[in-house]
Amino acid sequence: MKNSIRKITIGKPIHTDAVVAKLTAEKGKIPYLKREDKSFIYKLGTEDRIYGLGENVRGINKRGWIYESNCADQPNHTESQHSLYGAHNFFVIDGKERFGVFLDYPGKLTLDMGYTRMDEVRITPEDWNMDVYIIEGKEVLDIVKAFRTLIGRSYIPPKWAFGYGQSRWGYQSEDDIRKVVKGYRDNDIPIDSVYMDIDYMERFKDFTVNEETFPDFPKFVTEMEKEHIHLVPIIDAGVKIEKGYETYEEGVEKGYFCKEKDGTDFVGAVWPGRVHFPDFLNKDARKWFGKQYKFLLDQGIEGFWNDMNEPSIFYSEKNLEAVMKKIQKMDNRDMDMWEVFGFRDMVNGLANNPEDYKSFYHDMDGTKVRHDKVHNLYGYNMTRAAGEAFEELCPDKRILIFSRSSYIGMHRYGGTWMGDNQSWWSHLLLNLQMLPSLNMCGFLYTGADLGGFGADTTEDLVLRWLELGIFTPLMRNHAALGTREQEAYQFTNKEAFKNIIGIRYGLMPYLYSEYMKAALRDEMLFVPLAFAYPGDKYAQQTEDQLLLGESIMIAPVYTQNATGRYVYLPEKMKLVRMKSMKDIKTEVLEKGHYYIDVALDEVVFFIRPEKIVPYTMGGQFLEEAEKQELKTLHFVTDKAEYELYEDEGYEKDYENPNHYKTIKVEV
Ligand code: MIG
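That is the input. Now the predicted structure with MIG docked in place:
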């Protein structure tokens, strides 16, 4: 069966630039989906499975819950949520029929995946203007690949961004950062980057550096470079309103901020207090905002993370005023329960208020569009602003950029991290489950806050989480202000941290190679067993193991106090047990179900038949690891080949055939 992609246009869609392939739209009926009054309906068979939806709560199989595409600053990633920071409207149904659906629609979309009725998918937009893409293919992986080709090549970061990074909200000064670097280097725990959260700015103003805490920033960047550390500052969406602050003054003067209905600049508030929001949906504003990154690029910075770009709004000026008035009336009142609840809701409702999102406007290159209609494009276009600027400012160099909020299309400009998770064991599993769903939607450069962002972590949680994190492209330990310190050197068993992070560096030849091939071929990096072993009922139900690239399967431990876990082998595989790159044991296992012991200081993964994993002994930072001799782990019974992709990691000549080498193993 050949892949087929059909595009059906309904009404007058707002252009999102999610799709890059040129397709002629058809009119009329949409295959598979029945349009009723307010919704699209699809009748599910009992065995049908649903995959996709990118960054979201719940499992790999998305059936049985109601999701909402409505980018939100949602720090509670519990099962009860309906949306997180991204809006990724692509899914595949696999069962009695097999097809993919992409709803290119930038407003709020409800995706009832067998929630209201277990046997029904019900998709409800807020209006009927959208492009619908229906994709058919032989297997799920063919459908996903066809979709990925449609939306264009995934973002590729510089190679150093595959190194381990340490972050924490609360590193205040040069000295705080020096202490972190020293903690790692003194204990021989490998590291390549330290992230700079909002604390580095001057009163939370984008594109400023606090001169008291960072007195000579370019010099500090150079000092860190000598330590082989890349500094990665955060950029927030809101621009502080402050007389004399250049970004603010210029934005106002040129009219580059989002507007109220009456044409005045919309006022919201975030970290710096009152802010304006750049109109990233306007081409000129986007260009202008992108150029601001130059301030940091010029000082030696090569990577950024874009935050608060749903956009997150603590309160709007208007709404705060209204609420304050009501509160004044309540002064000295004897409030009963309902009044107290009402009071609470009113105050809590100040943040990310749907009414606020309906009250400001974008100038989409001449057309005035109300924000809620295009809400899900905001973070995407902030990151696009950066990506497009980097193309212009440093066309030959890869710059690291990832974003909290995203929409399909943004995957071409940057990566995304999974946002404010908690130091909970359940979020380790959620991290694993989100990986393939994000890959399906084009997001390959991704990862979660390792160790957990909110709440106090524990040493065993950080270790176990790192044992998954060594496999994720973005490998960053990040924690919230006020939580327990969780840098690897803070814990008792430093040797284990050193070895486990060291394994990441040892496996880099394989991990980088697989990332690059996945990006360049529009393929997934993390594949659910269900996709790779169609028809295998155990594979279909495996929610806690993944294939990573062509050679390996991962199955991390994600429960506290466990000394191992059950693993399903859909075929004969070779178990690899690593305590460090110097201590590797292997054992061949037949297809079947096993309980596998995995000590707290061990990494276990599995090699598929006739497959090869290139590795080195690693190093303290990527450049050092690169210099080591290449070796192979393999499960080869006769002879096999591995296609290694290797480049210097900073330039963009991806197509250069010299980047490919064939590794042959014969036994
Ligand atoms: O509202 O910059 O997701 O990674 O540390 C919190 C402070 C704002 C949210 C990000 C998180 C970051 C934090 N930010």
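The pocket of MIG is lined by residues 169, 197-198, 234, 307-308, 404, 419-420, 478 (CB under 6 Å).
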